[in-house]
Design brief:
The chain is α/β, with parallel strands linked by helices and 221 residues long. Strands 1, 2, 3, 4, 5, 6, 7, 8 and 9 form a nine-stranded parallel beta sheet that branches. Helix 7 runs parallel beside helix 8 (198-204). It is globular and about 45 Å long. The protein has helices at residues 3-11, 29-37, 48-57, 77-83, 93-106, 129-139, 160-178, 198-204, 213-216; strands spanning 19-23, 42-45, 65-68, 86-90, 111-117, 127-128, 146-151, 185-191, 208-211. The chain has nine helices and nine strands.
Length: 221
């Protein structure tokens, strides 16, 4: 199947309330252009340099929304703010505060998600649930970040029932945070679900799914 036909097939399965983010990391620029022609406007990248290289080749497509979905090193915060409209992977209070300060200096207001680990997972970045609940007060003092919701990635090795429970727990956490009525923290978005489990994430209330292999096929390298 072509990229365009894959996108059309996936779109037929997505509710209108769910935003499709095409994960274009390790995908050639030509494939990004093909996805763009098929109507995709949201693209996800994991590495700052790869995103910068792609953006320099795609300057004729100014209405793309770029989403950073990979781990962000603190020393690359300013560059991330230059390149991305969305940052899904804010994974610590320290990083949030650094981004907030630099965003203020740059007169930017990025839309962001807070990365949370619903289950312990040494292979993932993010807050544990107790850590996040503890840090919400200080996160609410970030004036330049538009905190829109949560992002999460389930641990490897879960079956479908466990994955669904994991995503439901993420939605319940977002509801719990929303009930606290913070002035600077919204919980409108749930960035969860990838190529292998997006149907479960949608069932649990995902508003953004991050699909790479399903759209572009297996990556090279």
């Amino acid at each position: 199947m072509t990229i365009a036909s894959q996108i059309d097939s996936i779109r037929q399965k997505l509710p209108d309330s769910v935003r499709l983010i095409a994960v274009s990391k390790q995908v050639p620029v030509e494939a990004v252009r093909e996805a763009y022609k098929a109507g995709i406007r949201d693209f996800g990248e994991s590495r700052i340099q790869e995103a910068a290289d792609k953006q320099s080749q795609l300057q004729d497509l100014p209405d793309i929304n770029w989403h950073l979905i990979g781990h962000l090193q603190a020393n690359k915060a300013a560059k991330a703010l230059e390149l991305f409209q969305w940052i899904h992977s804010i994974d610590s209070l320290k990083l949030a505060q650094r981004l907030d300060r630099i965003a203020g200096e740059m007169s930017r207001s990025p839309q962001v998600c807070l990365q949370v680990k619903i289950l312990p997972d040494p292979n993932k970045f993010g807050w544990s649930v107790p850590e996040l609940l503890t840090d919400l007060g200080e996160l609410n003092e970030c004036q330049h970040l538009k905190i829109q919701g949560l992002m999460t990635i389930p641990p490897l090795g879960l079956d479908e029932e466990q994955i669904l429970e994991f995503y439901n727990s993420t939605r319940e956490l977002a509801d719990k945070i929303e009930e606290q009525n913070f002035s600077q923290i919204q919980m409108r978005e749930l960035s969860m679900g990838m190529s292998g489990d997006y149907h479960l994430a949608i069932q649990a209330g995902a508003t953004m799914v991050r699909l790479g292999q399903t759209l572009f096929g297996s990556r090279k390298g």
